[in-house]
Amino acid sequence: MPVMMAKEQDNFMAGIRHALNLPLRTRCAELTVLLDRGNLLELHSFFPILIENIFGSQGSISWGLRSTTESESEDFRQLHHFLSPCGPVFKLIYTLLKDPNIRYEFPLGCLPLKIRQFLENSQMHPFYSELVHCNSQTKQIVSLMLNSFDYYMFHFAYHLINPWQQRAGSTLSSWNTVYYLLCCDYIIHFLPVDPAVTVLPQIYYNGKNPLQVAKANLLEHPQNSGLISGKISQSKDDSFQNNLDIHHPRNDIWRSETVLTVFTDMWLYNNQVIDNRSNISSFNNPAMAPSASRFLQHNELPTGEYMRIVRVLIKQLHAFYASAKADDTHLGELKKISVPMIQGKFYTFIRNLIHRWPLDGSFRLVLELWLTYIQPWRYPPNNLIKQVNKKEVNPDLEDISMAPQQEVDPEFIPFIAENLLAYVVIFQQLLPRFCRVDLVSPKMSLMLYRITKNFGKIPRNAKLNSTQVFDQPNLPKYLREIEQCVDNNSSPTHKYNNHWVNTLPPLSPTSNWSVNVSHNRSTGNVSTDFASSQSRSGPNATSFLTSIRVPADKKWAPVIRQKIFDLEGPNFCYKSLFTNPPVAEVYDLIYLIKKSISQAEEIVRAKERDEQEMFSGIWGSVKYFFKGIDTNDEFTLKDRQKVPLHLQVALQNLADMFNIHNEVQRDSEPSSFVSNAVSPCSDFLTPERVRARIKNIRYEGDPDLHPIQSHENTFLVRTLYQIALKINEIYGPTFYQLYHSQSFVGRLSREILCPPITIYRYDKSTPGSPRLSSNLPPRLSLRFMASYSFLSYLILGAFLAWIFGYRIEVYFTFLIAVYVTYKCLRALRGRETPVRHNYPTQGFGNISFNDSF
Asked: Do the bridges between strand 572-575 and strand 132-134 make them parallel or antiparallel, or are there none, so unpaired?
């Protein structure tokens, strides 16, 4: 009998190995059949192999979840069905859950650094307390021992931050991948908003029932519990009996608990965002080969797919949290702590992300993520995340429409108070950023509008269409009231945890807004830190380590002070957003907006005038039909026309927000713009200087390798270049001799061939990117034949020749004869002047014709 079982298992594994080598679309179908036939022992052995094969966590080839899009319809459909919440893989997972003793090892190296630090703390996190696996000799945590469901979810979440897989997602322009769709499915399925909806399938798994040791740990350290198990342990003590036959309430929610904790911990504690000084290779197994470690020492920002997935998670959590009011099930307790448990994680994540993100249009992804978090009223329980149709709605287009602003319900005041830093400090971090970008750009003006839209009102005379009416939201009013609770107050005694080091980026010490005078928290002399913070703070600054009595009407003061201490540290100096008068950064931005409005209007007028002149008349209509609008500008005229309106609305919103309408009406330049720290150096690159430099930039490389222009045909440019390249390689020495000949043939060659020139390039492989020169010899260039004007005249001549009855070969022979005759006449008139050059005469030196286009 054992021999027969071993033979059957060998046959099963042989079938599995064969299936894993099949094409993707047939692999899923074949594995589905094999998984139905396998017994529990065979499935247990195969499960970790399948997970590693799907996700490639250690650098092996994965199934391409982050590179397969809807365009590959069959692969996309098969993968989505195979990994869907009720698909074959989850059927396998639930089969393995029948044995609560089945565990799989997940390496600590795949966890974010913050989680690893927390696991080393004596105060064990309640979710991880029953998962850790310690070395029997050293008593150190070496890995996590997970059931099949947890093992899959950890690997799935890690796949998004795995450095081995970063390249696959970073080069993909499409956002609708299998991985994105699966993330949406898991978030919706395991975090249901409707109280009447249960997580399917309904299973009984007693491996998650808390034990007495877990109960004692939770009761001793309730402040570290981010999970519902602590609440359940206090309300249902009889459920802690070590009796597996009793149905524990946690059995109904443990899958939701896993998805919520794993997704938020993995994605919001990402080392790549929180600490850009650490090597990305620290994510991986310490036993990784040295060559692999060197390969992973790159530092890339999160992809657009990453940002959209986190945004979907935040949206669903807002609805998930809000639905707790109508949910009296066990899942309702988890809903009540879902948003509070991510507040600190998200604040750290978004602060670091803003600090590191480049000054370009892709910042829109970060901005929309922040706006999603600070506006929970936009995602009520009846506005389920299911309404975000993955197949029809592009997140890049979402929120662009300027919909009427609804007033914030007073029920959200506790959320605003607990997240005051996410509103005020991040706003203070964001606004000066727009003093360093080109506000005339449609992308930048739209982002500035999106920020100020939530704090001001739209003027009645600045309607975007005849049907929209804009109302002023009352968010600034609530922020002002809550800020009064923290002015001139300090924090109570804190229990400081030195295992959670502050990883937030420093705020500028020259800023007139909040500053963090010390990047990292210190466990040293508190009085020294306090003195330092007081010495650098201004009159509106608030220190949080003195002992001042809190007035009774300032009920939010203790909550806010504790949040500030936990997130920013004891050296953080909070300054009110709504000072009177506003800080200099506000005036500087207002000045730049007013200046950019004039520039944007001038650009619009110039483009309208150019298009009208270019396409006027009958010939202009013909050019418009064949050529279309000039594409030298990245943006269309319609995009440019929106810029002045966006900037005007943003200017009005800032005036409403800070109550400085009189200042906005002035045309004088604020003195702070000259003397303030926004422009501390005379060499500071303002948008005006950048535009001035662009006008003086000229191309110094090979003329045949000049970027393709809008008046050229791309295919012909590249084809003619390859033809000319081949001719120059074969006849290059002959061209060299003919060009320098003083005979008639030499003069004719100088009329036909391009003259020798010196070109320059920057060697980016060398530190400092030095400017290097090289010489091009006399050569043949055919690029002029790729211009649309040349082609137009050529086709027009052929049409006329056809009308008069001439054959096409006669027409081309006539053209060549005219061209040669013209060049000969010019050569006859040429003078016998010596040819000067600045390249080596012995051979071709550093001349090369092998640089591919």
From this structure: unpaired
Phi, psi of 107 (to 5 degrees): -70, 145
Q: What is the mean pLDDT of the chain?
A: 76
Sequence letter at residue 316: Q
Q: What share of the chain has pLDDT > 90, as a percent?
A: 36
Single out the residue in 559, 575, 591 at which a domain terminates: 575
> Which tokens in the block code for residue 300?
């890339």
H runs (alpha helix) in 84-177: 88-96, 113-120, 126-129, 148-161, 163-170
pLDDT at 764 over 90: no
Q: How far apart are CA 55 and CA 179, in angstroms?
A: 11
Strands in 132-134's sheet, in edge-to-edge order, are 104-107, 141-146, 132-134
Cβ-contact 59, 158 below 8 angstroms: no
Give the pLDDT of residue 4. 52
How many angstroms separate the CA atoms of 296 and 282, rounded?
9
Question: Are residues 538 and 481 part of one domain?
Answer: yes
Residue 67 · residue 165 · CB < 8 Å = no
Residue 269 CA to residue 380 CA, distance in Å, equals 26
Total number of domains in the chain: 4
Predicted confidence (pLDDT) per residue in 106-152, tens digit:
999 899 988 988 887 756 678 888 898 888 787 788 899 999 999 99
pLDDT digits (tens, 9 = 90+) for 496-519: 344 445 668 877 666 778 877 644
Q: Among 102-106, 462-466, 553-557, which stretch is predicted with the lowest mean pLDDT?
A: 462-466
Amino acid letter for position 84: S
Residue type, 835: V
Residue 568 lies in a domain: yes
Count other Cβ atoms within 10 Å, centred on residue 230: 23
The reported pLDDT for the residue numbered 494 is 36
| 167 and 274 share one domain | yes
Closest CA to 652 of 606, 594, 608: 594
Question: Is there a contact between 249 and 330 (Cβ–Cβ < 8 Å)?
Answer: yes
Lowest mean pLDDT among 132-146, 301-315, 382-396, 422-436: 382-396
Peptide bond into 581 cis (omega under 30): yes
Q: What are the tokens at 402?
A: 């300027």
Residues 95 and 219 in one domain: yes
Q: CA-CA distances (angstroms) from residue 265 to 181, 232, 341? A: 20, 22, 10
Question: Does 264 lie in the same domain as 173?
Answer: yes
- pLDDT surpassing 60 at residue 266: yes
Residue 614's CB is within 10 A of a number of other CB atoms, namely: 14
**How confident is the model at residue 615, as a pLDDT?**
62
CA atoms of 126 and 227, how far apart (whole Å): 7
* Statement to judge: residues 201 and 60 lie in one domain: yes
Asked whether 207 and 103 are in contact (CB, 8 A), the reply is no
The pLDDT of residue 478 is above 50: yes
The pLDDT score that the predictor gives to residue 629 is: 55
Is there a contact between 610 and 629 (Cβ–Cβ < 8 Å)?
no
pLDDT at 616: 63
Q: What is the average pLDDT across 158-178?
A: 72
Q: Name the nearest CA neighbour of 544 among 481, 497, 482, 485.
A: 485
Interacting residues of 105 by C-beta distance below 8 A, sequence separation 6+: 133, 143, 144, 145, 146
Which residue segment(s) compose the domain that 3 sits in? 1-38
Instruction: Say which residue the tokens 């009855």 belong to.
Output: 805
Position 296: which residue type?
L
Pairwise CA distance, residues 371 & 55, whole Å = 32
> Are 18 and 100 in a shared domain?
no
Sign of CA dihedral 665, 669, 672, 677: positive
CA atoms 62, 65, 271, 188: torsion sign: negative
CA distances from 635 to 440, 611, 692 (A): 11, 14, 20
